[in-house]
Amino acid sequence: MVVRVVIAALTRGFHDTNAYATLIARNRSLSDVAICDQDLDVHHVLFHEGNISQEHQLYIADKTPSLNLKFVDVSEEFRYVPSDQGCKTGLCKETQGSARFSLGYKTMCRFWLHRFLDYTHDYDYVVRVDEDCVVKSLDLTSIIDDMRSSGKVYLTPSLMSEDSHDVVIGLARFSDRFAQEKGLAHPVYNQNPYTNVFVMNIEYFKCLALYQEYCKEVDKTGCIYINRWGDLPLWGVILSIMVPRDKWAVENRLVYYHGSHCNHINC
Ligand SMILES: Nc1nc2c(ncn2[C@@H]2O[C@H](COP(=O)(O)OP(=O)(O)OP(=O)(O)O)[C@@H](O)[C@H]2O)c(=O)[nH]1
Ligand SMILES: [Mg+2]
C-alpha cells in the first residue's frame, strides 16, 4: 500500500521576494534530502493566508522544482472570529508577554492545534516543517515504516519544558478540569513537544473524539487569541492526557536547524 505523506508549513507572504530567503532555504533543505521511495507518495504543501501572489509563488517554486510545491490558501482561518469567553470568565487574560504576538501568530497556533486537519484529508501522514527550519536529515522511509510497525501516531524531535508563565494563564486550570471531567490522566505541563517539526498519523487524530472535544473547548475559551496559548503547550496536554505513552515518541532522526530559536535539533 502506498502511504500518502504531506510535508507542510504555514508560511507568510512578503512584498519583497528577498524576504522569502528563509522559506527557500527550508525548501532547498527538503529537496536535498529527497525521499525516493515507491511506497511513499510525498507531496509538499505551503499553506498561506492569501497574500503570496501567483508571481511570488512561481518565484518560490522555481527555486526547488523537484518538490513540485503546492500553495494552499487558508485565508479563511485568518478571518476566524475568536470567542472572548476566557476573558469574560476570568480564565485567561492578555499580558505584556502575549500582547507581543500578532493575530497571525495566534492564528498559526490554532491552525497547528487542529485546523490543519481540514486541509490534509488526502494524506495518511502530515510532516510539519516550519518556514524557519532547515532540515539536515529526514529519513521518512524508515521513520514511517517504524511508526506503522510500532503503532506510533505522533513523533516530536524534542521535548520542551513549560512555555512562559504569562502565555499559559488558565491553561492548567482549564485542562485539569477537562481531564478530570473525562476521567483522564492528570495533564503534564513540562514535557511539551517542540512543534515546529512533527510527524503525525492523521487518521488517528481525526478519529480521536477526545481530541476534537478538547480543541472545541479550547476554541470556546478564546484563550489562544486572548493570552496566546500556544500549540506547544496544548499538544503537551493532548499527548499527556489522551494519547497512550507507547503511541508517541521523541524521534532523534528528525534533524534540523530551527531559525527563530537559533538551535540545532538532534544534530
Ligand atoms: N501565514 C502566517 N504564518 C505565520 C505567522 N506567524 C508565524 N507564522 C508561521 O508559523 C510558523 C512558526 O512561526 P515562528 O515565528 O517560527 O514561531 P516559533 O518557532 O514559535 O518562534 P518564536 O515566536 O520565536 O517562539 C512559521 O512557519 C511561520 O512562517 C503569520 O502571522 N502568518
Ligand atoms: Mg520557529
Describe the structure.
- The protein is 39% helix and 21% strand.
- The protein is α/β, with parallel strands linked by helices.
- It has one domain (3-257): Spore Coat Polysaccharide Biosynthesis Protein SpsA, Chain A (Alpha-Beta Complex), CATH 3.90.550.10.
- The longest helix is centred in the last third of the chain and has 13 residues, at 209-221.
- It is globular.
Any key phrases for this structure?
267 residues, alpha/beta, Spore Coat Polysaccharide Biosynthesis Protein SpsA, Chain A, seven-stranded mixed beta sheet, three-stranded antiparallel beta sheet, 39% helix, binds guanosine-5'-triphosphate, binds magnesium ion
- Cα-atom radius of gyration: 18 Å
Neighbour order of strands in the largest sheet: 3-2-1-4-9-6-10
SS element count, helices: 12
- Supply the helix-strand structural class: alpha/beta
- The average pLDDT value, as a whole number, equals 97
Distance between the termini: 32 Å
The CATH first-level class comes to Alpha Beta
